[in-house]
Amino acid sequence: MQRAGSMMSHLGSCLQALPSALRRSLSSAQDVLRRTPLYDFHLAHGGKMVAFAGWNLPVQYRDSHVDSHLHTRRHCSLFDVSHMLQTKIFGHDRVKLMESLVVGDIAELKPNQGTLSLFTNEAGGILDDLIVTNTSEGHLYVVSNAGCWEKDLTLMQDKVRELQNMGNDVGLEVMDNALLALQGPTAAQVLQAGVADDLRKLPFMTSAVMEVFGVSGCRVTRCGYTGEDGVEISVLAAEAVRLATALLENPEVKLAGLAARDSLRLEAGLCLYGNDIDEHTTPVEGSLSWTLGAVTSGCPSPCLKKNVAMGYVPCEYSRPGTLLLVEVRRKQQMAMVSKMPFVPTNYYTLK
Known about the structure:
Elements: E1 9-11, H1 20-25, E2 26-27, E3 34-35, H2 39-44, E4 48-52, E5 55-60, H3 65-74, E6 76-80, E7 85-90, H4 94-99, E8 102-103, E9 113-120, E10 126-134, E11 139-144, H5 149-165, E12 171-174, E13 178-183, H6 187-192, E14 207-212, E15 215-221, E16 230-235, H7 240-248, E17 253-255, H8 258-267, H9 283-286, E18 294-301, E19 306-312, E20 323-328, E21 331-336
Parallel strand pairs: 3-5, 6-17
Antiparallel strand pairs: 1-19, 2-4, 4-5, 6-13, 7-11, 7-12, 8-9, 9-10, 10-11, 13-16, 14-15, 15-16, 18-19, 20-21
Helix pairs in contact: 3-8
C-alpha cells in the first residue's frame, strides 16, 4: 500500500513467540562482534548470546523470555544496554549544534532534564531516535541506537567540524561507559538502598550523577524502554560488573535480555528504529505523531495473552475498533485496530 496518512494504527496478529522486530534485527553472519564490559558476566549467569546490531548480547538467560517479561512488569529486571552510543557534546555552542540536527527545543531543557528527540534528514525522514540530556556539568549527554552507531556519529562529527570551521565553540566525545537499565515497579526501591540521593526527587526524564552501591561517578537517568518506572545507569566500564553484581544481590532483581526488552517495549507502544520508524518515516507519521499497509513489529503479549503488533494503514482504516485482515505466514488473520499503549505505562512523575 502507498503511504496515506499520519496516524499509527496498532494491530493484533498471530506471530511467533520471539518478537518479530527482534527476529529481523538478530544477525547470524557477522564477522566481528563487539562485546560489552559484561560479556563474561552474561556467560557466567547463563546468558544465551546472539549477534545484534554488531554486538554479542544476551537474548535471554536461564528463565524463559515470558518469565523475564512478567518479572519486569511485577518486580524489576536488569538489562545490559551498553551497546548504545553514548556521547558528550560540549562547548558554548553545544545547543546550537544539537538543535541543527534534531527535532526538539534543546535550549529550553532545564539542568539535568532530558528529552526524547529525533535525528532527521533534509526530507524530514527519521535517521534515528535518541535521548538528549542537558547536564548540570556543562555538556549535553546523548544516547542513541547501536544499529545507527556509525551513521549517528558521522552526522554529529560532520556538524561539529562544520561549526568549528565557522568559528563556533563545540566539541564531541564518545564515551566508553557501560549502560545498565534497571526496569520495573520496584526498581527505585532497589536502587534507593544503594544511593544517598532521594530518588523521589528524580522524576521521569531527569538525571543526576551519584554514587551507586559504592561506585562513584554514575549518571542515573529516570527513563527506560519498557513502559515501567526505572533508570538507566551510565557507569565506567571497569565498574560495570561490580555494579551489576551489587544490584543482583537483591532478590527483586533478575537479569533479562533482548527478547524481553523487545516484547516489553512493544506492549508499551515504543518504536524500534529500523522496524517501526526509519528514513522513509517522518515524525508526524511515526506518532512521534504514527500509515502503509504493513505490520512493523509484533509478538504475543505475555501480559495480555493476546497477539499484538504495530503497523501502518491508510487513515480511513485507522479508527480504533476497525477490523482488518492481516496476512501472517501467507494466511489471513482477523485483527482489530486499538489505541496505544497496549499495557499502561508507569513512568514516575512528581505529583
